[in-house]
Specification:
Layout lengths: L3 E5 L3 H6 L8 E4 L2 E4 L5 H18 L4 E2 L4 E3 L6 E2 L3 E3 L2 H6 L5 E2 L8 E5 L4 H17 L4 E6 L4 E8 L2 E9 L16 H9 L1
Parallel strand pairs: 5-8, 9-10
Antiparallel strand pairs: 1-3, 2-3, 4-7, 5-6, 7-9, 10-11, 11-12
Helix pairs in contact: 2-5
């Protein structure tokens, strides 16, 4: 169930100034707050496996989990990727609030783990793809537990193109993490445990 709250905002700055005294995550849609529902246990396990893999390679300062907020154009006006690889410059910029604004350089890579259902598929494969492409994120991974695939999209000019779709024992291709040794089999086995 989607829960809308009564607070109404005219600008993203008004939304950023809002504090309801909780750690709850909200998406800003048409000026209204919509509570972000919790992730499934399977998706959390997959995102955690990726977090650990990335953190071992890059250190924990540059890898952020689901709590990192991205300001985007369109509706909703913000997104919470399951995993984000940030730039060195972001580390100090995010000390006060874990939000990457449109005025900042985009993160290097975002990962979304697709939840079951047509609406979630549309959101990750279509809506978020267009929003992340629009803000210039160089690489976007769509991790699909149902299809057992990892689709890697890279920005070519202003448009995402498919770098590859990894399945089974194929390594996940990545320009941002070119020496990454990760296969969908290992990733989804961790999510199934």
């Amino acid at each position: 169930m989607v829960q809308q709250l009564s607070a109404r905002f005219q600008t993203f700055e008004e939304y950023l100034a809002y504090d309801d005294g909780t750690d709850r995550l909200y998406e800003l849609f048409n000026g209204e707050l919509i509570a972000v529902p919790p992730e499934s246990g399977c998706n959390v396990q997959i995102a955690n496996r990726l977090f650990l893999t990335f953190a071992l390679r890059l250190g924990t300062d540059r890898v952020r989990g689901h709590g990192l907020e991205l300001e985007v154009r369109g509706e909703p006006k913000n997104r919470y990727p399951d995993l984000t690889l940030i730039r060195d410059e972001h580390v100090s910029l995010l000390a006060q609030r874990n939000t990457i604004r449109l005025t900042m350089s985009p993160p290097l890579l975002v990962v979304e783990v697709v939840s079951p259902g047509e609406l979630q598929w549309q959101r990750d494969y279509v809506a978020k793809r267009l929003q992340y492409q629009d803000v210039g994120i160089p690489e976007y991974w769509i991790v699909d537990p149902q299809a057992q695939t990892v689709l890697v999209l890279t920005l070519e000019g202003d448009t995402y193109t498919e770098l590859g779709t990894a399945t089974g024992e194929e390594p996940v291709p990545s320009r941002q993490l070119s020496t990454l040794d990760l296969t969908p089999s290992a990733l989804f086995a961790a999510g199934a445990q």
